[in-house]
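Sequence only, no structure available. Ideas?
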Amino acid sequence: LRAVFAVIRLDFDPAVNWLGLTVRLETLAIAAAVFVGITLAGIGAGRMQARLDRLGTSDDAERQPRLRRDDLILIAFGAVPGAVVGGRLGYGLIHLDYYQANPAALADPGQGSLALTAGVLLGVLGALGVARLLAAPIGRWLHVASVPLLVGLGLSKFAMVFGGAGQGQYSDSSWATSYVRPGPWDSFNPGLSALPSQALEGCLVLLVALLILIVPVFARFRLRRRRRIVWPGWAPKRDWVALSGGRRFVTALCLWALARILAAFTWRDAQVFGPFGTEQLILLAIVGTCVAWFVLAWIDRRLGAARAVRRARRLQVARAGDKTAPEVTKARPDT
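Reply:
I predicted one. Tokens follow.
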């Protein structure tokens, strides 16, 4: 990397020769990102199952299906068809005018590309379908997969830098990037300085993953006063409602969509509704759906708690009525 004229100039070959084959650096980097995500999911599944084995002594816990690492590969492969189909449909929505005039081009894999947002959504649905067929604990798998999915998505955005894909708006700012060599690169006019939207989005997504991990830890920090001395300490560990079970995945999905919306303001995509592009509108719909889901879940919990209180009060009244009722004795027959 060379910083020249307040612009970061990227001077490297996008492909390498390995065993007589020409392989793009972007392909290798994306494969490494997928490997890291699957590895983290496998480690998380093993740790969660070990924790459940230590704590789960009830009959209900023993009847729950186990988190099996060998199911992870099948679930990951189950996400691939949905990701490809969803990515292609999302790309068609972004370039709707072209594909309305050329509908057959949508099925041509050599033309165009894939859109990430719709690919993630349909990929998740495909993975859930495979998990259901395997009778796997879907809620626990969603909990385990939330952070690894964010890490994989964040690293894959950084991998796009090696292929010149995802360059944003043209700019002469100090953090803009340009590609010196002729390529081939995946963005138009790679030699012109542009905002590295892919690296920006990668940073935001990895920051979201870090926040999901560290916020519950720092929330336990307490300052305890003993006489005149203040001692740091930790509160007992508790499970946050929004960061446990399947709700953790919904939280991760919502925050990922917000991060992608922010990064999308630096894209070259056309604006279709105010300052928003097509994919940003899809992301806003995801955020709205996640928020609505949390609101409905909160209302359901409140109503369930109110029903439990009323049920307990009726039980207390019934027990009090049984105690105050006069005792009825059976008359003995005369002998």
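Residues 1-5, 57-61 have pLDDT under 50 and may be disordered.
Hope that gets you unstuck.
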